[in-house]
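Escalated from tier 1: fe (ii) ion holo job.
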Amino acid sequence: MAHYGAILDGAGGEVDVFEAITENFLAGGGRPRAVLDALAPRRPIVFHGVGLGIASSAPPEPAYLEAARRLFDRYDPPWVSDHLCFHRSGRHYTHDLLPIPTTHAVLDRVCERVRWVSKVFGRPFCLENISRYVAYRRTDMDEATFFAELVRRTGCGMLLDVNNLLVCAKNLGEDPHAFLERIPPGSVYQYHLANHTDRGTCAIDDHRGPVPPAVLELYRYAVRRLGPATTIVEWDEDVPPYEVLVAQAARVKAVERTARPSRAMHP
Ligand SMILES: [Fe+2]
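Tier 2 regenerated the structure:
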């Protein structure tokens, strides 16, 4: 919100696309909606949800889906996204993005719900890989295989968060390159890049500071393997002046240009 003025003054010329958190705009009216109304004719806006909890034991609430659909119909985003996670059990909401057990049963459940919400939203729907701090003892497949199957069975797109892969590498010893090898080329609609804080024994996904070299290097590898796609920098803590953010976006574009995939992967 600190940069609403700079964006509306036209300083956002270097930015190709804006991402808005779905839940922040579900209620009609207010300054955030007015800013979105002013921005929409100038730049594409994609919506990114944090409240769907698609793998929760209970299905998404129809009232939530309907409110989101009305929002999407108003701004016509080329795709919308949320996270592969759960966030509630029964009436208990955690307000957090919790990791799922990657089992065949959960895959069946998520596939069914992806088909449902994609139909309600009426546009391409993507799921993002989250940062994880714990792992399940018993699973049937790793997360990348789960995503690959989800894409194959439903046509769901992927929002690939490169920083989250490195957070999982630090916390759980996972191999981010092996993850990228399992994702089908052409399935990534969007990338997220961000920073994290290394606390020695664990990494915290706090989106504080510029995108570090390790994330940019893995991003280059991902673009080379999976193809270029819209890329959003997430910088949520200690937000710097607007010019710094624009410079960061330019840096990311420069990295993407050096990643030259062998063929176009995605429209
Ligand atoms: Fe993200």
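The CA atoms of residues 130 and 164 lie 6 Å apart.
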